[in-house]
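Hi R.,

As promised on Friday, here is the backbone we talked about, encoded as structure tokens. Could you run it through your design pipeline when you get a chance and send me back a sequence?
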């Protein structure tokens, strides 16, 4: 019944296409779909915010962003002890994230306030307190080069 009403409601400027009753007009704009999507409930809660620290995690970096450029951008808000853009081993380009370490918690808070959701090298970046690395058990070396995966 619903499909009959949809077909009769279609004007000459619309055509039925694809799966689920998707309607597209002559300009190629999607009008509506016969499917409704409800995402499944999340089984894991989001992680709690990181504890304030002098180390910041910066994401959303451009491939053009350098360590020096990151340092200069964050130095406007306090004394930067260290800045590092994480790069790909093969290409040398940024992986899109990095870290900035300030001298004090106050400087780190100013850095987040000043740079979070701001543009750097044409990209919107996000700054937040870095989470400590999870503790990993030490890897056992067996002596065989074939026993450890190469990445």
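Update: got your reply. Pasting your designed sequence below so it's all in one thread:
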């Amino acid at each position: 019944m619903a499909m009959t009403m949809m077909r009769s409601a279609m004007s000459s400027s619309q055509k039925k296409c694809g799966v689920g009753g998707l309607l597209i007009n002559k300009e190629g704009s999607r009008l509506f779909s016969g499917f409704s999507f409800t995402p499944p409930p999340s089984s894991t809660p989001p992680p709690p915010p990181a504890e304030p620290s002098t180390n910041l995690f910066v994401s959303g970096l451009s491939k053009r962003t350098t360590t020096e450029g990151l340092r200069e951008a964050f130095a406007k808000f306090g004394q930067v002890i260290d800045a590092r853009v994480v790069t790909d081993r093969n290409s040398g380009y940024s992986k899109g994230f990095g870290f900035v370490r300030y001298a004090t918690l106050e400087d780190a808070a100013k850095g987040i306030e000043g740079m979070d959701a701001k543009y750097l090298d044409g990209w919107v970046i996000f700054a937040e307190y870095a989470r400590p690395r999870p503790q990993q058990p030490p890897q056992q070396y067996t002596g065989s080069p074939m026993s450890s995966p190469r990445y």
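One thing I noticed while checking it: The CA atoms of residues 63 and 94 lie 5 Å apart.

Thanks again,
M.
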